[in-house]
């Protein structure tokens, strides 16, 4: 009887211990920001932790600190300008967030993880390349000790490495910080569902629970610029050129050769890893859930119709100040004339953007 009682007591203690471990495991906070990006997001984001203290010079010349950002929510990420892998995709997503939250009273903050290279002046050129005229976006020149404190306080990862294409490995998440400086959400920049959750959560913090307004169907030209396609494909060190693509043969990572046509372009938009072109480190994101099927068809058609980018030797070439694509100067090229000079554009979209705020695109 005593043995039986001891067994029951032991079993009861074990059950209680297991239950305690279970409760602790369910309530234990993840140790890194990346852990939160894969949890289910609440409609009203819960407070996670206070953001760290910081004070850095920005691309605008101003000093930006935790205190100066107090009063308005902001979205933050970590990048460096010479990155050839994840940073261009993260920056493209940051620009898309800015456009989705157009005119919203909030800020967007990009911390450089490369203090040795990314001065305020370098960051200013980077911002001009990606989204000139966006006054809510600040890119911060960090210092080694300041960066270490920010990385620790935001619970993100930044690590120098001798392996791979880029010398710095870092977190690819976006952090949503409220007007008090409290982190309210962590979002995977490569996950379309997280992108939508970030937009929704930002609206909640701004006091708007109304759903995003319905959008009219976007043209291929509009999508091409909304997705910042030229910011990567205009740089041969990042991505293959798109002009005159149809009919070209592409050597893929697996050694096979594919001939580019409309079907190939559509597949690249929804399943970009299926036929990755050999020799490019940058991974293209999927746009499967970011546009309707009809919009993706329109974007594929627009890309297929892009002209050959390499001009004839005797052709005069100008650079579109909005997207930085090369434009062949001709009587039929889109252009604006003012102050004794003429500016050329690759598309009506770029021409309109320039006309709305020409000073933002002038060097």
From TrEMBL:
<dbReference type="Pfam" id="PF04945">
    <property type="entry name" value="YHS"/>
</dbReference>
<dbReference type="GO" id="GO:0020037">
    <property type="term" value="F:heme binding"/>
</dbReference>
<feature type="domain" description="Thioredoxin">
    <location>
        <begin position="45"/>
        <end position="204"/>
    </location>
</feature>
<dbReference type="InterPro" id="IPR036249">
    <property type="entry name" value="Thioredoxin-like_sf"/>
</dbReference>
<keyword id="KW-0479">Metal-binding</keyword>
<keyword id="KW-0349">Heme</keyword>
<dbReference type="InterPro" id="IPR013766">
    <property type="entry name" value="Thioredoxin_domain"/>
</dbReference>
<dbReference type="InterPro" id="IPR007029">
    <property type="entry name" value="YHS_dom"/>
</dbReference>
<feature type="disulfide bond" description="Redox-active">
    <location>
        <begin position="83"/>
        <end position="87"/>
    </location>
</feature>
<dbReference type="GO" id="GO:0009055">
    <property type="term" value="F:electron transfer activity"/>
</dbReference>
<feature type="binding site">
    <location>
        <position position="87"/>
    </location>
    <ligand>
        <name>Cu cation</name>
    </ligand>
</feature>
<dbReference type="InterPro" id="IPR009056">
    <property type="entry name" value="Cyt_c-like_dom"/>
</dbReference>
<keyword id="KW-0408">Iron</keyword>
<feature type="domain" description="Cytochrome c">
    <location>
        <begin position="215"/>
        <end position="307"/>
    </location>
</feature>
<protein>
    <submittedName>
        <fullName>Uncharacterized protein</fullName>
    </submittedName>
</protein>
<keyword id="KW-0186">Copper</keyword>
<keyword id="KW-1015">Disulfide bond</keyword>
<dbReference type="Pfam" id="PF02630">
    <property type="entry name" value="SCO1-SenC"/>
</dbReference>
<dbReference type="InterPro" id="IPR036909">
    <property type="entry name" value="Cyt_c-like_dom_sf"/>
</dbReference>
<dbReference type="InterPro" id="IPR009078">
    <property type="entry name" value="Ferritin-like_SF"/>
</dbReference>
<comment type="similarity">
    <text>Belongs to the SCO1/2 family.</text>
</comment>
<feature type="binding site">
    <location>
        <position position="170"/>
    </location>
    <ligand>
        <name>Cu cation</name>
    </ligand>
</feature>
<dbReference type="InterPro" id="IPR003782">
    <property type="entry name" value="SCO1/SenC"/>
</dbReference>
<feature type="binding site">
    <location>
        <position position="83"/>
    </location>
    <ligand>
        <name>Cu cation</name>
    </ligand>
</feature>
<dbReference type="GO" id="GO:0046872">
    <property type="term" value="F:metal ion binding"/>
</dbReference>
């Amino acid at each position: 009887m005593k043995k039986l009682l001891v067994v029951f007591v032991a079993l009861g203690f074990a059950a209680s211990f297991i239950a305690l471990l279970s409760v602790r495991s369910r309530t234990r906070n993840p140790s890194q920001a990346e852990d939160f990006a894969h949890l289910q997001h609440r409609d009203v984001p819960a407070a996670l932790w206070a953001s760290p203290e910081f004070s850095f010079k920005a691309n605008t010349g101003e000093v930006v600190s935790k205190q100066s950002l107090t009063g308005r929510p902001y979205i933050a990420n970590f990048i460096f300008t010479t990155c050839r892998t994840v940073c261009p995709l993260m920056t493209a997503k940051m620009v898309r967030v800015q456009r989705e939250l157009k005119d919203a009273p909030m800020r967007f903050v990009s911390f450089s993880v490369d203090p040795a290279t990314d001065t305020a002046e370098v960051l200013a050129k980077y911002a001009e390349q990606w989204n000139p005229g966006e006054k809510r976006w600040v890119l911060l020149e960090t210092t080694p000790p300041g960066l270490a404190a920010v990385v620790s306080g935001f619970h993100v990862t930044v690590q120098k490495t001798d392996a791979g294409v880029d010398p710095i490995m870092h977190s690819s998440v976006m952090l949503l910080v409220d007007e008090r400086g409290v982190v309210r959400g962590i979002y995977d920049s490569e996950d379309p569902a997280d992108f939508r959750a970030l937009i929704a959560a930002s609206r909640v913090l701004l006091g708007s629970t109304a759903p995003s307004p319905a959008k009219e169907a976007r043209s291929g030209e509009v999508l091409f610029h909304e997705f910042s396609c030229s910011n990567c494909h205009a740089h041969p060190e990042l991505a293959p050129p798109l002009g005159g693509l149809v009919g070209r043969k592409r050597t893929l990572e697996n050694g096979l050769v594919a001939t580019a046509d409309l079907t190939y372009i559509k597949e690249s938009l929804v399943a970009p890893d299926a036929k990755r072109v050999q020799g490019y480190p940058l991974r293209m994101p999927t746009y499967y859930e970011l546009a309707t099927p009809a919009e993706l068809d329109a974007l594929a058609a627009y890309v297929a119709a892009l002209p050959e980018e390499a001009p004839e030797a005797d052709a005069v070439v100008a650079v579109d100040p909005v997207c930085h694509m090369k434009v062949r100067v001709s009587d039929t090229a889109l252009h604006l004339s003012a102050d004794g000079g003429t500016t050329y554009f690759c598309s009506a979209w770029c021409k309109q953007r320039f006309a709305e705020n020409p000073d933002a695109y002038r060097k």
